[in-house]
UniProtKB/TrEMBL annotation:
Its EC number is 1.1.1.1. Signal peptide: none annotated. It comes from Ancylobacter pratisalsi. This is alcohol dehydrogenase. Gene3D superfamilies: Medium-chain alcohol dehydrogenases, catalytic domain, NAD(P)-binding Rossmann-like Domain.
Length: 353
């Protein structure tokens, strides 16, 4: 797996002739204090990890569309002020009490799901993604738009062998949610991907590695993204207003556009599935029952489980040949969010402290 860096900054792992850590007494963070307002750069005291927690020096944090939903206040109110960011890769720098692992100096990934209660019906029935009392990184607890972050050690994933933190960062949500969505699509061989951003560019490669056919739907007229999808192995690419040339077995909707649900239902065969992958979507318009009939299904994806992460991180080095990234320094987090909103890059934006 390699990264194709399209931004001005390229990150390489430093040579270990020098000490791994140096004394740090404060943290830089891009902070959201009011929904709809720009993030502000703040300097904060270095956080101390509590019981079961680790402190991580952030090497890279990808920027997700969910971060836009958090910043814009499109989700139920969370923690304010909050440091956004939930696609984090970094080096463990300190351990709180009762932490058996990971060890100091190890590279880890920190995802959206930051903590679960472990005792509710969902946690005890292997559905921790639906926990009744969860914490979410960058939403209800501080995230990775910062130089350092504190995380629950049980929800940090070892990234041994992932030597490029910039390439690994988008895997922490775009990859994991894409993988969970693909699992929900079942054994589908012909899969439509609606919205070809960070998640789709990763999961399209997984589909091709598995021998499936990918049909990419973009904003109407976005020929650059269509060409990009074809370069990653899509069998066809066109606008979301175009008819698919084949009948699909399943469709995954990554774009937060409710009007794509009836469009995808019309594109899938009898018994086909439409998987809504986003945490937020505009209202689904009224549609005739006949496009749902014949046992078509509409499903939603909520969060992820640690098992999803273990599965995906095991196959990603083989299945994902290229991670396309545009890098930004931490202080330009607002620019990264604006560029994501406007669709000014392919793949994923990644902040580098």
């Amino acid at each position: 797996m390699s990264a194709r860096h399209t931004g001005a900054t390229q990150v390489r792992r430093p040579h270990r002739r020098f000490p791994l850590f140096f004394e740090v007494v404060s943290v830089k963070a891009m902070v959201l204090s009011a929904y709809g307002a720009p993030l502000q750069l703040e300097e904060r005291p270095l956080p101390v990890p509590g019981s079961g927690e680790i402190r991580v020096r952030v090497e890279a944090c990808a920027v997700c569309r969910t971060d836009l939903h958090v910043v814009d206040g499109e989700l139920p109110p969370g923690k304010l002020p909050v440091v956004p960011g939930h696609e984090i890769v970094g080096i463990v720098e300190a351990l709180g009490p009762d932490v058996a692992g990971p060890a100091i100096g190890e590279r880890v990934g920190i995802p959206w799901l930051g903590h679960t209660c472990g005792t509710c019906f969902y946690c005890t029935s292997h559905h921790e993604n639906l926990c009744d009392d969860p914490l979410f990184t960058g939403y209800t607890r501080d995230g990775g738009f910062a130089s350092h972050v504190v995380a629950d050690a049980a929800f940090a994933f070892a990234l041994e062998g992932f030597d490029d933190p910039v390439a690994a960062a988008p895997l922490m949500c775009a990859g994991l949610i894409g993988w969970r969505s693909l699992k929900m699509a079942g054994e589908a061989q012909r899969i439509g991907l609606y919205g070809f951003g960070a998640a789709a560019h990763l999961i399209a490669q997984v589909c091709r590695w598995q021998g499936r056919e990918v049909y990419a739907f973009t904003s109407p007229g976005d020929t650059a993204t269509q060409a990009y999808a074809l370069s990653l192995g899509a069998a066809w690419a066109g606008g979301s207003d175009e008819a698919c040339p084949v009948e699909l077995d399943a469709a995954i909707i990554f774009a937060p556009v409710g009007a794509l649900v009836p469009a995808a239902l019309r594109a899938v065969r009898k018994g086909g599935r439409v998987v809504c992958a986003g945490i937020h979507m505009s209202d689904i318009p009224q549609f005739p029952y006949d496009i749902l009939w014949e046992e078509r299904q509409v499903l939603s994806v909520a969060n992820l489980t640690r098992e999803d992460a273990r599965e995906f991180l095991a196959l990603a080095p083989q299945a994902v040949a290229q991670v396309t990234t545009t890098t930004y320094p931490l202080e330009r987090a607002n620019d990264a969010l604006a560029d994501l909103r406007a669709g000014r890059f392919q793949g994923a934006a990644v902040l580098v402290p």
